Amino acid sequence: MNINEIAELAGVSRATVSRYLNNGYISEEKRAAVKKVIDETGFVPSSHAQTLRTKKTKLIGVILPKINSESISRMVAGISGVLSEQGYNLLLANTENDEKKELEFLQLFQDNRVDGIILIGTIFTGEHKKLLKSLRVPVVIAGQHLEGYSSVYHDDEAAAEAVTELMIRAGGQHFGMIGATLRDEAVGRKRRAGFLNSLEKAGITVEESALKEAKFNSESGYKMARQLMENHPETDSLFCATDTIAVGAIEYLRETGKKIPDDIQIIGFGDSKIARVLTPRLTTVHLAYKTSGEESARMILELLAGKNTADREMKLGYRIVEGESLR
Amino acid sequence: MNINEIAELAGVSRATVSRYLNNGYISEEKRAAVKKVIDETGFVPSSHAQTLRTKKTKLIGVILPKINSESISRMVAGISGVLSEQGYNLLLANTENDEKKELEFLQLFQDNRVDGIILIGTIFTGEHKKLLKSLRVPVVIAGQHLEGYSSVYHDDEAAAEAVTELMIRAGGQHFGMIGATLRDEAVGRKRRAGFLNSLEKAGITVEESALKEAKFNSESGYKMARQLMENHPETDSLFCATDTIAVGAIEYLRETGKKIPDDIQIIGFGDSKIARVLTPRLTTVHLAYKTSGEESARMILELLAGKNTADREMKLGYRIVEGESLR
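Predict the joint structure of the above. Result:
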């Protein structure tokens, strides 16, 4: 059943049916005729066709790097809470850490499917910047800072400095790090910078070969811990860029008989559930993921309302969650 | 820039541009003229408008109850692997265990936005069944069995029987259960049925008050473990319907000084990462979530190809992962 058929059954023009569906003016008589046909046939107007007319979908697209992640799911909960109050639904696009997919979904979402996009970003290539610049719908970047865009992000560098200082004060002398790719500005570059800043301030040197890089899973954390400990068996303090990486590292350390924290102290990032059930409990950094989701949602609402055309940046704080993995 | 403007610049009709974009027949001369304008202006046809013409979006909608879940993310990985090979992208809709949202997204997706829907189901109300019946796009149900629909699901009952038998053979005498809502056919009803079947076969009785019901999070597992142990301090064998529930129960048992498995043995469901890092490691049930995602994807492809119009049901097996939480 389409608009043409409704028009024919009601004995009116196609334009009349269209005006009826879009609450435009039509005579009482014609309104009654169209309503009767629609009621009898159970016709549901395609929201797709409506979208082309009204240009509003009440949908926000959220592009995210992985779904099985506590930090991401807290951000999505924050976004969803704010937006559903305003009658918006979310469509999620999972890129599985594939930058190409990010570009594909940006393109897909902007082709009128959504009113706005929240990009939980990881890596920004030249192609990203070019595509972002050409977007016809408002976009907010969450979890990363990108010059020239509205964004909500965390103070990864200050947080990394603070936990590293804790390990120094606890008497750490031989430091190692299992970080993330430096192409990830927040998790890779800023956390590493904070770690190195604190060591430098304390006059502690660290060899380049004690700075490892893992993927965002515990298997990779395990592997990198093995590489690190084989090159640097003296390591007594280990900085892991995420809790997930720390879980893998701890598994390796346990298997090789190292005691935590007596032989080696270790910290993670993310304040995940898994950090709390580990024995000993992992000392980790809490970043306000839910808040950053909420703030991103508020920003996109403002952009949709045409307010605040200047790009806004918001940097959020952190909190250290003390576990039992520091001396 | 829209099709009308392209047509004007190229000196051809709107219909010609439309045929060009849809690979219809047009003369070489006109093709060259349109191509030149499109190349020069960088015009990108709206896929939305294309959708209305071709009725194909190459998108599959996946409705899921929560995103921060290992089982769900494994299913999505399976779905995504099979479908992206065929050039499909996924749009995910997160219902946060809200049945109303499930209905909303079914409606939203079917309004021509996607070619097919995979519903990772939980609860089927009358409204669900009515809406499912009226869908104009093919749908596959994953993780649950629903009469009359193509579905891929797990043998929850047999798996629950098997782990319960293990606890009986290990000498369990006083059994308790922290299950899930009975409105969830698979996780709630079938796992409970399997548990009770095995006890009955062994001639072991269990009081109704030792059968608790938790939400799908560890906080609720903690709370229900407390209720159970306060009513039934004699409990020496605890069946948890999910690993997440078991995590909360273990936390409570630890706090009250109970030794696992000496004082109380415990099992979970899901073979999650958290089960493996717990001390002692949790004995749990592995369900082939990734496979069920892959099979759901294959079913939807067959439905899209117009093959196999008869509804197909596929029941997948299980495997017990032995930890250290059984005697």
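Chain B has three domains: 3-54, 59-154+289-316, 156-287.
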